[in-house]
Amino acid sequence: MLTLRPYQDHAVENLRGGLRRKIRRQMLYSPTGSGKTEMAMAVIRGAVAKKKRVIFLCNRIQLVQQASSRFAKAGIEHGVIQGDNSRAAYLPMIVASIQTISSRRFSLSEFDLIVVDEAHGCGGSTQYHEVFFANKDKPIIGLTATPWTAGLGREYAQLEGPLFQEMVVAATIPELIESGYLVDADIYGPSEPDLSKVEVTGDDYNEKQLEDAVNRPKLIGDIVEHWLERGNGMSTVCFATSIAHSKAIVEQFLRFDVAAEHMDYLTSDVDRAAILGRVTAGETKVVSNVGILTEGWDCPVVRVMILARPTKSLTRYIQMAGRVLRPYIDPVTGETKEKALILDHSGTCRRLGFPTDEHPLILDTTKPGKKKPYAPPEEKLPKVCSHCSFLKAAGVWKCPACGFAPQRQSEVSAVDGTLVLMKRSKKTKDEKAHAERFGSKQDVFSMLMHERNQRQYSKGWVSNKYRKIFDVWPTGLQHSPKKPSDEFQRWLKAEQIRFIKGLKKKEQANAAA
Q: Residue 370: which of 204, 207, 203 has the closest Cα?
């Protein structure tokens, strides 16, 4: 029988509680490497034990194969619906490809529970929308490590509500690092391309223009040079921008006698399995890919990520970084992976912050394709000293390394080819002081829930106000409204006054212009 970790057991109970409350569509958030499949299996076992039928939907063939393997290893008998590989579709538990379900117009009327793997892809997927609309009265549980994708909380008339109604938070990345279930990462940067002429299409960079910007001999040389300096000998995954870019990186590694291989969507399943087998065995030190290993690839032995693919998408960024955050103990030497290493040759870490930070845990209501690329608050981003290339904490004007104080913002620029260790900025909020003033985090969250219900504010209002107080997004808290204290009421009133004054200033400025 599967033994769940404490946070996993708590999340499973919260999911079951949601089902008891008739919440039809729940999103389970848990970071990459935290065991989302194990939590799903616990729910599935319970459903099958009650003579219910369950279908587990995946959006890629490789994920169908991986899920099937995981279920088989756990002793869960199941069938498969995926193209020519379909088998035993009569069993109570089925692993299926959403593409096959959609193309064959396969009815899910016989199933009592639908589980969706990598559910962040549901927001803009017409195939998933069709499944949701046709089964709006059935319980659906989505699994994801990146729940902030556009459209996941959007309202649909066909559903008489949002795509996903509630989110269950199992744990956050910082919490899992603190408890030893994930490892932290040292990040070196920047050695990055000039993206000034690269346009943004949708929520990320234009692919063709991006390839032109990154596939340059000097930048590729920097990648290999700094890997030899920082990551030499350690198993590494590289995320490249295009097939040509990835192959050029591998070619440069081979010139330095580093065992490296390339893979992309054209790589056959047999060759892909062979390549990844050599990575796991340590025969191949660097595997470079184009979007293939972003999701569903579990290889704890990999310690280093080379980020050669600039992105504005927080979802893509966190999915890539999650590949190296799993802990690992070498069975031969007993050596423990204390930290992962990220070599950022894309500037992404400076733009989006550290992948191991807290991230917004809100089901986004924006129409897919309309959401602006995610950017964390400016104060969280490290800055590069133009004099010595040290990455100083946000808000630090005078460089602590060399003492240089820039006169104008335009003087701050990265030095090409230099990788320096990125440092986190310290939080400025005093959580203890806020707790003494307003109560616990749960108290604040409950009081905000009460105000939101009373005043019919948007869903994001609670999270944004909570974050303004504690500098983190609300996670793992009970949705139990509570009447605000007098002190908290005064704070909310002051916030409203500040907001109104801000609007008036903007109106006056616009009128003057």
A: 203
Q: Quote the DSSP letter at residue 410.
A: G
Establish how many alpha carbons lie within 13 A of residue 290's alpha carbon, considering only the half-sphere containing its beta carbon.
18
Q: What is the mean pLDDT of residues 38-44?
A: 96
Please check whether residue 182 is in contact with residue 33, taking contact to mean a CB–CB distance below 8 angstroms: yes
Q: What is the 3-state secondary structure (H, E, C) of 45-88?
A: HHHHHCCCCEEEEECCHHHHHHHHHHHHHCCCCCEEECHHHCEC
Q: Which two tokens stand for residue 9?
A: 């057991």
Tokens linked to 122: 């549901």
Number of helices (H), then strands (E), belonging to the chain: the values are 16, 20
The three-class DSSP label of residue 26 is: strand
Query: Please, which residues have CB within 8 angstroms of residue 483's CB and are 6 or more apart in sequence?
Result: 447, 450
Nearest of 373, 84, 351, 361 to residue 202 by alpha carbon: 373
301 vs 335: CA distance, rounded Å: 11
Would you say residue 37 has pLDDT above 90?
A: yes
Mean pLDDT of the chain: 85
The secondary structure of 145-170, three-state, reads CCCCCCCCCCEECCCCEECCCEEEEC
Per this entry, what is the length of the chain? 513
Please enumerate in sequence order all residues whose Cβ is within 8 A of that of 474, keeping only pairs 6 or more positions apart, or say none: 361, 441, 445, 462, 463, 466, 467
Which secondary structure element, helix H or strand E, spans residue 502, and what is its range?
helix 486-512
pLDDT at 170: 94
pLDDT in tens, 163-181: 999 999 999 999 999 999 9
pLDDT of residue 408: 33
Place of tokens 């030893």: 180
Residue with tokens 């063939």: 61
Residue 319: burial class (beta carbons within 10 Å; 0-12, 13-18, 19+): buried
Query: For strand 184-189 and strand 54-58, is the pairing parallel, antiparallel, or unpaired?
Result: unpaired
**Average pLDDT of the residues in 369-389:** 60
pLDDT at residue 145 above 90?
yes
